[in-house]
Amino acid sequence: MQKGRASIEFDEPPAILSSASIAGKKEGEGPLGSCIDVVELDDMFGTDSWEQAESAMQKQAADLALEKAGIRKKDVRYLFAGDLLGQLIATSFGAVDLEIPMFGLYGACSTMGEALCLGAMTVHAGYADRVVSLASSHFATAEKQFRFPLGYGNQRPYSATWTVTGCGAVVIGRADHNASGCPRITGATPGQIVDLGAKDSMNMGAAMAPAAVHTIRQNFEDFGVDESYYDRIITGDLGEVGKKILLDMMKQSGHDLENVYMDCGIEIYDSDRQDTHAGGSGCGCSAVTLCAHILPRLRSGEWNRVLFIPTGALLSTVSFNEGQSIPGIAHGVVIQRG
């Protein structure tokens, strides 16, 4: 199953049995609003804090994904989940009522890709029949931790992205007779950390784009393919700035992605109408777009094969205040129509 230097090719591809997406009011007003399963108009999700709201969102997404798959919590062996907060508090508090053994993941905004890779590997290896992979983010919790309190009213540069309030969850299982028509995870290219010295926390697209480029190139090399192999090559949240950098870097290496490329951060918002500047970001950005936009098109047959590459900027408030650069990472997942 080892393919090339870094990739995995599953000879019995695990299936994505179901998916669920939960998002906030702003995301519901965007281009994908009608595709999202649940749009919650109260960004507090009926709780007393932003962090509790994100936990509630995670549990709701997981419960809905399980309901769609027609399985119970006790039928799931492991949970792979993460968020942007310190000590993964949105996940740890949100997952407690699920009563599923959990692996807490931190890959910044690439966490959904990491969760999909590890979930598929676990199922394929026979360590579990079914797992749940999910990731979430919340605009207010991310702003409070990484930038400024909302009441500060700071101005945002045009290179900045808007953290998505949302959660996406998928159930991954063995491809048996119950998985007819379900998209399959046929391969994965886990990413390595790439750091070209970017330091602007308000321009994370520039920090993450080189990592996405590295993963795409590695995927092409390991599988012996090029951009024509995929109906879409989809990054997580590079936004408008990161998109331009990625396309330029790929073109310099002989690959023109213009006709197959899209970015979840650009798809989830109408930047002109919603004033989100460079687009969307956060763990929930790629997770919600995957569940609400990408998987439905694979199920319908509109797309046959995609390379899904959630992207992450691996900074913290400590590293930023110490003046360190922002390492990037991007995990590639090959998803094919069932």
Summarize the structure in words.
The protein has 338 residues and is an alpha/beta fold. The protein has two domains: 2-173, Peroxisomal Thiolase, Chain A, domain 1 (3-Layer(aba) Sandwich), CATH 3.40.47; 180-336, Stage V sporulation protein AD (Peroxisomal Thiolase, Chain A, domain 1, 3-Layer(aba) Sandwich). Helices cover 35% and strands 22% of the residues. The chain contains eleven helices and 17 strands. The strands form four sheets. A seven-stranded mixed sheet has the order 1-2-10-17-14-11-12, with helices on both faces. Helix 1 (25-28) links the parallel strand 3 and strand 4. Helix 2 (50-69) crosses helix 3 (89-95). The chain is globular, with a radius of gyration of 18 Å. The mean pLDDT is 94.
